[in-house]
């Protein structure tokens, strides 16, 4: 249960839409689930959305004389605000990288922009996907009690999830500070739009916590062999990079990453040549 020390005083940012308020004069409650029949306020109306001239049904006390009796949404609201603030700094860091170093690099995808997708708390730490025009990474940020200021860039760490164990690299950015990143896709040429990249990022977050994917992600040798077979040119076709294919473009031509690629290539632990996702030319 959460209570204010004083009255409500119009502090909308201190309560969630689920907050049950109470008049400090006559103790009449306002429950958003019930609304207020006396003023024709519909059920589901948060206290913040009441008209400014709304008054207590019991004693006509003004709205600012109400206090929080109970706010079941408050912890979630605080966590959501913290994640939003942290991810905004992550996005700001990589927008700076984009503008200062990557904007004119040939490998970037001009259809994409920097965006944080699906961040949620995992064991007390914000976890989600970062999309940029040149890579898509799973990113883990430090929790409230973590000090990641001494992370050494490039250090590898294996972190376990319900779907398997994945290799993360330690890194640092000016605003974000220390963080850990797992490569998903790089470069980003397979994506035709930001919406498509968003959909794949959300699918990654779902697949990551699905134990049914564990067997697939742990079959590294089988996966690698299958991928090599997929990338091999058909009989009679020149190999990638040969004189008959100087651009090195022969191979799989998917317009969107398939579910198999998402789970086995996007998330499985693979050699750097397959899964490297550079930030600015170095591995993330």
From TrEMBL:
Cofactor (UniProt): Fe(3+)
Pfam families named among the record's database cross-references: NiFe-hyd_HybE, Rubredoxin
UniProt record, GO biological process: alkane catabolic process
Domain Rubredoxin-like span(s) in chain numbering: 18-69
GO molecular function, one term: electron transfer activity
PROSITE patterns: RUBREDOXIN, RUBREDOXIN_LIKE
UniProt cross-references to InterPro entries, sorted A to Z: NiFe-hyd_HybE, NiFe-hyd_HybE_sf, Rubredoxin-like_dom, Rubredoxin_dom, Rubredoxin_ET, Rubredoxin_Fe_BS
Ligase recorded as keyword: no
Region (Disordered): 229-284
Keywords of the record: Electron transport, Iron, Metal-binding, Transport
Biased composition (Low complexity): 268-284
SUPFAM superfamilies attached to this UniProt entry: Rubredoxin-like
Name this polypeptide is given: Rubredoxin
Organism (species): Pannonibacter phragmitetus
């Amino acid at each position: 249960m959460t209570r204010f020390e004083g009255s409500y005083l119009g502090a909308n940012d201190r309560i969630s839409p689920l907050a049950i308020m109470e008049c400090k004069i006559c103790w009449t409650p306002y429950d958003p689930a019930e609304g207020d029949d006396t003023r024709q306020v519909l059920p589901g109306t948060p206290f913040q959305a009441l008209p400014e001239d709304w008054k207590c049904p019991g004693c006509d006390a003004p709205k600012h004389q109400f206090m929080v009796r109970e706010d079941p949404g408050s912890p979630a609201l605080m966590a959501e605000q913290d994640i939003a603030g942290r991810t905004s700094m992550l996005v700001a860091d990589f927008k700076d990288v984009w503008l200062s170093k990557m904007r004119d690099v040939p490998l970037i995808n001009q259809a994409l922009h920097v965006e944080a997708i699906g961040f949620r708390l995992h064991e007390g730490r914000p976890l989600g996907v970062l999309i940029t025009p040149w890579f898509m990474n799973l990113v883990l940020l430090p929790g409230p009690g973590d000090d990641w200021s001494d992370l050494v860039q490039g250090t590898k760490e294996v972190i376990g999830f319900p779907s398997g164990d994945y290799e993360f690299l330690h890194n640092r950015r000016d605003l974000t500070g220390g963080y850990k990143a797992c490569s998903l896709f790089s470069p980003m040429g397979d994506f035709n739009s930001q919406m498509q990249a968003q959909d794949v990022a959300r699918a990654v977050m779902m697949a990551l916590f699905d134990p049914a994917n564990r067997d697939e992600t742990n079959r590294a040798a089988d996966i690698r062999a299958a991928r090599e077979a997929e990338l091999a040119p058909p009989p009679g076709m020149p190999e990638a990079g040969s004189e008959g294919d100087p651009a090195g473009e022969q191979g799989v031509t998917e317009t969107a990453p398939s579910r198999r690629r998402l789970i086995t290539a996007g998330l499985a632990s693979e050699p750097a040549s397959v899964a490297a996702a550079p930030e600015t030319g170095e591995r993330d």
